[in-house]
Amino acid sequence: MMASTTFLLQLQNYPKDIINNEMVELLQPYFEMEDYNMDTARRVCGDVAGLLSWTKAMAFFHSVNREVLPLKANLTLQEARLKVAMEDLAAAEKQLEEREQSLREVKEQYDKAVLEKQRLTDAANLCLRKMNTATTLINGLGGEKVRWTQQSKDFKEQLGRLVGDVLLATGFLSYCGPYNQEFRGNLVNTWMDILLSRSIPYTINLNITNMLVESATVSEWTLQGLPNDELSVQNALIVTKSRSYPLLIDPQTQGKMWIKNKEANNNLQMTSLNHKYFRTHLEDCLSLGKPLLIEDIDVELDPVLDNVLEKNFIKSGSIEKVIVGDKECDVLKGFMLYITTKLPNPPYSPEISAKTSIIDFTVTMLGLEDQLLGRVILMEKSDLEAERVALFESVVQNQRRMKELETNLLSRLNSTQGSLVDDEELINVLQVTKTTAEEVTQKLIVSAQTEKKINVAREEFRAVAARGSILYFLIVEMSNVNVMYQNSLKQFLILFDNSITKSEKTTITIDRINIILKYLTHEIENNEREWRIWYEKEKPEEEDIPCGYQKALDVFRKLLLIRSWSPDRTLSQARKYIMDSLGDEYGEPCILDLQVTWNESEPRTPLICILSIGSDPSPQISVLAKSKDITLKSVSMGQGQEIVARDMIESSMAHGGWVLLQNIHLSLPFATEVMTMLVDTETMDDTFRIWLTTEVHEQFPIGLLQMAIKFTNEPPQGIRASMKRTYQGITQDYLDYSAQGQWPPLLYAVAFFHTIVQERRKFGPLGWNVPYEFNQADFAASVQFIQNHLDDMDPKKGVSWPTVCYMLGEVQYGGRVTDDYDKRLLITFTQVWFCDVLLRPGFEFYKGYKVPQTRNLQGYVDYINSLPATDSPEVFGLHGNADITYQINTAKGILDTILSVQPKEGGGGGGETRESVVYSLAEDMLEKLPQQYNSFEVKEALQRMGPLLPMNIVLRQEVDRIQKVLKEVKSTLVDLKLAIDGTIVMSQGLRTSLDAMYDARIPERWLKISWDSATLGFWYTELLERDAQFRNWCQNGRPNVFWMTGFFNPQGFLTAMRQDVTRAHKGWALDSVVLQNLITRYNKEDLKEGPAEGVYVHGLFLEGASLDRKSGKIVESKPKVLYELMPVIYIYAINTTSGKDPRLYECPIYRKPQRTDQKYVGSIDFETEHNPRHWTLRGVALLCDIK
């Protein structure tokens, strides 16, 4: 059986389900056998092992299958039942499918019906919504239909006028900035007339502000601090709209404050041209895109700004660049440049005007009034002002929101595609706009009502603001009265605030307003009065400074204040500053002590005295030599004196003694020889000294100066110092020289007289017409004369005062005097002081300057030390005003010297060249230069008026001279222009003229044929005025009033008048005809016709005195008024041989302030309440010109 080929297949397909328990039990004995296992079976045969395994598996299967068979039987049963059930289910499902098919058919019909219904419903809803949208649009836009229709029509018309409007707007932005509101209006009206004449359409009564900027923006500017007057709004418009960067003329800093607030959120950088980081600030703002404010510039701009101002930007990709100096900087979006100046009327060059947009931001009366109203309300009703500001902000915000909504709505309307009723977002925008508009309108109505209430309350205080504004502008105008009356808006606002905070409080508004007005006006008046009183004091530095500044300022700042307000008192305050800083001893003049100087020297050290006017140390050196019992040999150097000097030096070196070489500057080569002798001489006596006196000389040997002791013997400044030096050379024995009681006071009087005549020199022409070099020799000779006179005096007759006066006034001092009026002054001094009154107790030269009643030298020294350190000009016989010019000039000289020795740093130049400046000046002068005189017309005019009349001869001579000047001026100016252009060669003469004109000096070639003047401007103005007088004379006949300053030869003019009068009276001789005068009360404009005889003259200035116009007499000068313009003077001639009335003061007339013989014109007589000597000492004179 196992061999059967199908055995394995039979085993695999064995019907396992037939195995029963019996069969398994039969197999059990086999299973229990020991060798019936797999290991044994494998050893026998592998197939046996497989069969053994199969039998065990079948037995095991049976044990399991016993439980499965019932289940299988049940399964068969159930499957049969299932089959029957499934057949039933199939029948049911078939029936169900048929029913569902019927349902789907019905449902499809239903769905179609529902969809149709929905379509109809949606269509109805859409139609309803469109109806509602249309209704909304109609309701929302219906109100705008009329306005928009009209606007569309207006826009269409405006398009036609746009050319003219844009032209006016651009012209306004480009040209109107520098002008005030009135001129701007006139300028725009002129442009409108031009457009009208050329048929260019424009809007009538065009409001450029409304055209270029929205009201909401203007309101925003106002919140930022911009005054809300029309001019300020225009200025802000130009600042923001102009293409050029703005340059604000902003003396009250209104514009600067607005810009600071406007750019506060943009990181505004503030700087100035002299700031050490200016370039850094500029570069940072350019590269970071920040606004830059350059404040408080002068009349020039830094050339480094040129490329920025001209916007010479270089496009590099998407970035712009600009060259700043030698560096290239990026220009980022957001950069803006503002420039401000505090100068009220700056003369900017055309170049600056072209590069910038110059805008006049000067405060206006209306603008200031509104500002002041805000300040007073802020302090008086702060809650009201806060409410007003909040309300204003709310209105601005609402207006801006309305504008934004309207803009958005119009944009949506313009951009909507298809039907408007389909754009739901548009409807939403419209709804929001309408709702917001209603809310804003309501708010604006409420705001308007609230503002009305606030304004009513504010207007109660309008009077205070108006008064304040008027007062400020009155104060500003005071600078026209006196240039020192300069006040800032900041100062005024402090006064204004004080008038509110410090004035009496009351709850009654009208009373409160009146109190503020009264306090404000009085405060300003009082403040002005305090400063005016202080300013007009003779010595303001000795007085308390007003407004608490006396305590607030230290000594140096007081010096700055005095320098600004009273330049003539600078030196006095400077002395206080030095004494306060260094000690009192530094305020005292240093008196030369030759004894100390000699002690410091040794034989090889020369002693050099640098000479000055009125100083000669020779007598003091001689006295010192005598006191030391040393031989002194002296020689005054000059041509041929070298041999004498050389012998003196060699002798003294060998045998001892001093040598004095006077005026060594006259023998400079010998000075070098002296230096060589001092260095090379091997042995010299220990007592040898060499003294040299010299004037300042640039060629003086430097080696000699470096080895020498140098000293100067400057005349002491002031009476105390001069008297102190004089009495330093007087001993007690000298004072006891004479037993006569007149000797000490006479000695003191001569010393005082010597001091006075020397000190008057510092006052210039007021002191002496010619600055004479009175020196110690004059004093010594005068004292010697007094000694001799007292020695020869008859005690019974006493001093011969006429003799003393003559010797002092005509010989000792008078011998130097060359000018007649100076001689008159000198004699007047001697006559006033040297008389019996001098010897009486209590005599005073001037208040506080007595003659000490003592014979003790120390008594004199003590009294001299008690004299004031500074002297009033009245001590010298002059008015207090005389000191002003002297002090100003002296202070200016000292300050200029201080500046000249300061370290100087080089810097880059910029701006116009000298040639371009002079070229422009020459063009301007040529434009104003009168035409040459037509000789035929002049001859015809002279023939008409009488060619041989003396006055007409003078006219012909004057015309000839002015013609020569005009010709030379024109020639020079034309040649200069050609030379600058390069057409002709620039000669040395033209170069000299160019340099002179650049420095505002008069070219030498003009000066030779014309007249002196302070500056070229004054000279040219006088040229035009002189020419106008002569032309008027030629064309219209003899003038009613003559301008005497305008004559080349005023003496000839007066002589011609005398000749005219002499010829008019038969029998009169010219020698006996003298000039007389009458001081009228008329000004030039008051006289419509000339006198029957003589002439009226005008344009004279009185110096040293003032004129009482009522009486026609001269009186004392007004404080700080140096010159007074005279009314018309009537000069005529009479035939007389009698002398002058001694009660009249003979007043000289000079053409210029330099009172020399060449400038002398003549004299006129003044009536006076004083003795004429008083005015002689005052130095009173008339000047044709004070420049």
Task: Provide a quick synopsis of the model.
This protein is α/β, with parallel strands linked by helices and 1187 residues long. The protein is built from 42 helices and 26 strands. Keywords: ATP-binding, Cell projection, Cilium, Coiled coil, Cytoplasm, Cytoskeleton, Dynein, Microtubule, Motor protein, Nucleotide-binding, Repeat.
Description of the structure:
The chain contains 42 helices and 26 strands. Helix 13 crosses helix 16, helix 31 runs antiparallel to helix 32 (820-833) and helix 35 (914-928) packs across helix 38. The N and C termini lie far apart (166 Å). The chain has 1187 residues and is of the alpha/beta class. Residues 904-910 have low confidence and may be disordered. The strands form six sheets. It has a seven-stranded mixed beta sheet with strand order 20-21-25-24-26-19-22. A five-stranded parallel beta sheet has the order 2-3-7-1-8, sandwiched between helices. The protein has a five-stranded parallel beta sheet with strand order 10-11-12-9-13, with helices on both faces. Helices cover 56% and strands 10% of the residues.
